[in-house]
Amino acid sequence: MTVSGLDLAASTVLLLVLAGFVAGWVDAVVGGGGLVQLPALLLVPGIAPVQALATNKLAGIMGTSVSAITYYRRVQPDLRTAGPMALAALVGAGGGAAVAGVLPERVYVPVILVALVGVAVYTVARPTLGRATRLRWAGHRHLLAALGIGAGIGFYDGVLGPGTGTFLVIAIVGVLGYAFLQASAQAKIVNAATNLGALLVFAAQGAPLWRLGLLVGVANVAGSYLGARTAVARGSRFVRVIFLIVVTALILRLTYTLVTA
């Protein structure tokens, strides 16, 4: 099968579709779908890393948009926080994508690994974290914190990406004080913006493989819709458990990358 100029075996196409579906489900519940989808794309014969990253953003924005709409209809996330955060994230992601081909991945992996271990320890040590919304600040301080989270994590998503949704969720829970379900809903809106910001830059560079991205994106949409509905039905405790599972998987994946580099 020829997709985006690449001759792909049927087994490779099936793997990509399955990875897109699983990534969409994980991303919709708690973020971190890039842990599944991006490595699958990097296995495609003949694909360049920047093409894989750009194609991942194309598929990702399809899924995150669907899950964001699903969450909005069922959870009604606080747009006074999510809106400004998303705008800051869009700009940050565009800046990150602009330098994605310049900064080496080895600079980020150790720092991200330490951060994820800290996130896991922090979450486990506070079993009541994220069960209910208890905002830390109001007014301008809340807005500034939201803008800082959006811009910083947006930049990271544009440069590299794995674990973006996970970092967004823990920042919205731990820094701003939202419950896990509300945080996941807001994270989807922000993540859609980071994917868009990065995709716009990658598109200008001609990096995305559009047909392949749309193919994986359709599967991602299906997984995202199912994941968002599952999270809404099961609540914040379920989201917290999946969050810890995804964080652990990210830690193992990045440790493997660091050891084998």
Salient structural properties:
261 residues; mainly alpha; 2% strand
Overview of this structure, please?
With 261 residues, this protein is mainly alpha-helical. It contains ten helices and two strands; from the N terminus they run E-E-H-H-H-H-H-H-H-H-H-H. The protein has helices at 10-29, 34-42, 49-75, 79-98, 109-125, 139-159, 164-176, 180-204, 210-234, 236-260; strands at 2-3, 6-7. Strands 1-2 form a two-stranded antiparallel sheet. Strand 1 (2-3) and strand 2 form a beta hairpin. It is globular and about 50 Å long. The mean pLDDT is 85.
How are the SSEs placed, and which strands pair?
Elements lengths: L1 E2 L2 E2 L2 H20 L4 H9 L6 H27 L3 H20 L10 H17 L13 H21 L4 H13 L3 H25 L5 H25 L1 H25 L1
Antiparallel strand pairs: 1-2
Short précis:
The longest helix has 27 residues, at 49-75. This protein is 77% helix and 2% strand.
The number of strands is: 2
Main sheet attributes: strand count, strand direction, barrel closure? 2 strands, antiparallel
Whole-number average pLDDT? 85
- Name the helicity range: over 70%
Rg on CA atoms, Å: 17 Å
Shape: globular
The portion of residues forming beta strands comes to under 5%
What's the helix count?
A: 10
Q: In oligomeric terms, what are we looking at?
A: single chain
- Secondary-structure element order, N to C: EEHHHHHHHHHH
Question: How are the strands of the biggest sheet laid out side by side?
Answer: 1-2
Please report the distance between the alpha carbons of the first and last residues. 32 Å
Low-confidence stretches: none
Q: Helix/strand-derived class?
A: mainly alpha
